[in-house]
Design goal:
The structure is a homodimer of 133-residue chains.
Chain A: H1 14-21, H2 24-35, E1 47-48, E2 51-52, H3 55-67, E3 71-76, E4 79-84, H4 86-92, H5 96-111, H6 122-129
Antiparallel strand pairs in A: 1-2, 3-4
Helix pairs in contact in A: 1-3
Chain A binds a DNA duplex (30 and 30 nucleotides) through helix 3.
DNA sequence: TGCCGTAGTTCAAGATATACGAACTATGGA
DNA sequence: TCCATAGTTCGTATATCTTGAACTACGGCA
């Protein structure tokens, strides 16, 4: 089993962060982790919205978050303790993470009243509309 | 030729925006467009860093930006006039775009002094490091 | 009106990345 | 030593991205 890789804060890129958080599952995981004031195990964050993420996918998602520099994962006995690296990132890219988390909140608040279910990315929506090309 | 699709501002998603801007080429295009106070044609933005983007790729990139709700494209004679939809997005997701653009600036300023060339996403960097697994 | 040049789009196929079940590893008890 | 739990890695099916080649749309000019 490869040891977990955490990039130095100087190697963290905007592209990496945006890519990591452009996935609804990862964004949800990260938002919940950021809302906590303590570490969380992977399985504690296995529910995204209405569905349960398979273990293998969950592991990949955590790897992406970790390699983007967004979370720090440390083995603690049989489980894994995940924490955000908010403070470090705030120092390097001031305001970025709060703005993204806030935007996610706005969108979630927006979607609820009309019961719009599982909105996907703009691209996905368009693809669906334009299917019969 | 399909008419150009622009999502209503209410259909614009955070995921779509982050995904669109998580690509270095698109981020560069968008940043330069946002820095302008007038419309720009596609070819005017064809240089990204040191390389020239092929026309077909450029077209795809503009489609992604457009469908994410980030830019508005209007045909003007033989060419295309592209403008950002900053104001609309600022209203829906306050602070998001400025934070991202600022982060890109920080990163660019960071990379120059040490002449670090064409940094890729964190994932790509890691993949390279871990190639001989 | 027909023809040409320019700007951009669409198509197709190869490269690359993602999702997830099955098999595996690491750790802590009993 | 054996088992259960938490997570990782592998393999493969699927989706997305990149880009050259072919195409469309428009304007200008003879």
């Amino acid at each position: 089993m490869r040891p977990l890789f955490h990039p130095s804060i100087d190697d963290v890129t905007v592209e990496g962060i945006l890519h990591a958080l452009s996935d609804p599952v990862r964004a949800s995981i990260y938002a919940r982790l950021a809302g906590l004031d303590c570490a969380a195990t992977c399985t504690a964050l296995q529910q995204a919205g209405d569905r349960t993420i398979p273990k293998s996918s969950l592991s990949q998602h955590f790897r992406v978050l970790r390699e983007a520099g967004l979370v720090r994962s440390e083995r603690a006995g049989v489980e894994m303790h995940n924490t955000t690296r908010c403070a470090e990132i705030e120092q390097r890219f001031p305001g970025l993470i709060p703005a993204i988390l806030n935007a996610h909140r706005v969108q979630a608040a927006d979607a609820l009243p009309s019961r719009t279910p599982g909105r996907r990315t703009a691209t996905a929506v368009v693809r669906k509309k334009a299917k019969g090309r």
